[in-house]
Specification:
three-stranded mixed sheet; 12 helices; 382 residues; single chain; alpha/beta; Rossmann fold
Length: 382
């Protein structure tokens, strides 16, 4: 099918675009390239060198014979977006084009406002563009498990049956977002739900867990196609930070007690989930919500796993605890459903020591690109 990948130059978007192209879909990328600008703003960089988008696309064409078109622009620019939709006439749109870092959104007022305007306005423009230009198009939107927070009940996939004073209804699962970024995702979910109910649009909201791993079969084909490997405190995940710290001999820094538990998914499963959602679209008027993760881990468990495999790569890793810069519970109940994508055909790749060792050896190989002064937390929630 004809698919637009919004945010196709980013960590999830780039391997998704290649994966869909390799599977025979007609793919185009829409991206403002702002993620590269945030590296410059923060003084950070991907551990793996990232080539310009034009070079990436040229290499992909040379290796596979397949062409991925690109449109450089911002979803908050409605005129640009409408022009792209009119040109491409997509049957599916994958929407990754958002500021996706909780710490970035909590730096200060300006970053909070930017995050919410960028994410909410861009998604609204996309919804109006679908309605006006390609109303039969299926929107696959990347949400986040962080919309739910950490309630003391099991987390369902998007909706929950409520019984109250003798009556019952199926309603969106309650939201308890933990940052200005996560709040923007909640606003997106509400806006998409409204537009599906009101205009008859079809959408799938993928509430993704924390993504780990770096390469897919496609990005590993050539160094020009490499994916991002972020380890800094703003855009890196806790697991990536632990890997980087082990690579350079720095103690593994766990925030608080380390009991914070979340859902996790490998990048190879992320791209497969997108493919499954596109192949099995929602119905007109429907907003489906799938919880897109495969396993649950606490931060402390991940640190212990990395410390345990470090000797295999010639490293000795110790674990230290830092005051938690975030406002979150260090210990809590967490049990989330995640069966819908498995039912559609996902065969999960689970975290194993071999993958952790591969990530550590990759970080050691590019250790000169790890910036130690960018690993420790400086952004505070309070």
């Amino acid at each position: 099918m004809r698919v637009i990948v919004c945010g196709g130059d980013g960590f999830c978007g780039w391997p998704t675009a290649l994966h869909l192209s390799a599977r025979g879909h007609d793919v185009s990328i829409v991206d403002s390239l702002v993620r590269r600008q945030w590296d410059a703003e923060l003084g950070t960089q991907s551990v793996l060198p990232i080539h310009p988008l034009s070079e990436r696309l040229e290499k992909w064409r040379d290796l596979t014979g397949r062409v991925i078109r690109s449109h450089v622009g911002d979803l908050t620019d409605a005129a640009f977006l409408m022009d792209v939709l009119a040109q491409e006439r997509p049957e599916g749109i994958v929407h990754f084009a958002e500021q996706r870092s909780a710490p970035y959104s909590m730096i200060d007022r300006q970053h909070a406002v930017f995050t919410q305007v960028n994410n909410v306005v861009g998604t609204l423009n996309l919804l109006y563009g679908i309605k006006d230009i390609v109303p039969a198009c299926h929107l696959v939107k990347l949400g986040t498990m962080g919309e739910y927070g950490t309630p003391n009940i099991d987390i369902e996939e998007g909706y929950i049956e409520i019984r109250h004073k003798g009556r019952s209804d199926v309603l969106p699962f309650p939201k308890q977002p933990g940052s200005m970024y996560h709040l923007s995702k909640v606003h997106d979910s509400h806006n998409i739900h409204f537009c599906c109910r009101t205009w008859g649009l079809a959408a799938t909201d993928l509430h993704q867990g924390v993504v780990y791993g770096v390469q897919t079969a496609e990005t590993a084909m050539d160094a020009v196609l490499y994916n991002r490997f972020d380890t800094d405190e703003v855009f890196g995940t806790a697991l990536n930070r632990f890997i980087a710290e082990a690579a350079i001999g720095h103690p593994l820094t766990v925030y608080g007690k380390g009991g914070q538990t979340r859902g996790f998914i490998q990048i190879v499963d992320t791209v497969r989930c997108i493919e499954l959602a596109l192949e099995h679209p929602a119905s007109p008027g429907e907003l489906r919500v799938f919880n897109q993760f495969t396993e649950q881990f606490s931060v402390g468990e991940l640190a212990a796993r990395v410390a345990g495999i470090a000797p295999r790569a010639g490293r000795v890793a110790t674990v230290t605890h830092l005051p938690n810069p975030r406002v979150e519970r260090d210990e809590h109940y967490y049990n989330a459903a995640h069966t819908a994508l498995v039912d559609l055909g996902l065969r999960p790749h689970l975290l194993d020591d071999a993958l952790l060792e591969d990530l550590l050896r990759l970080a050691i190989r590019f250790a000169e690109r790890i910036l130690p002064d960018k690993l420790l937390p400086t952004v505070r929630w309070r």
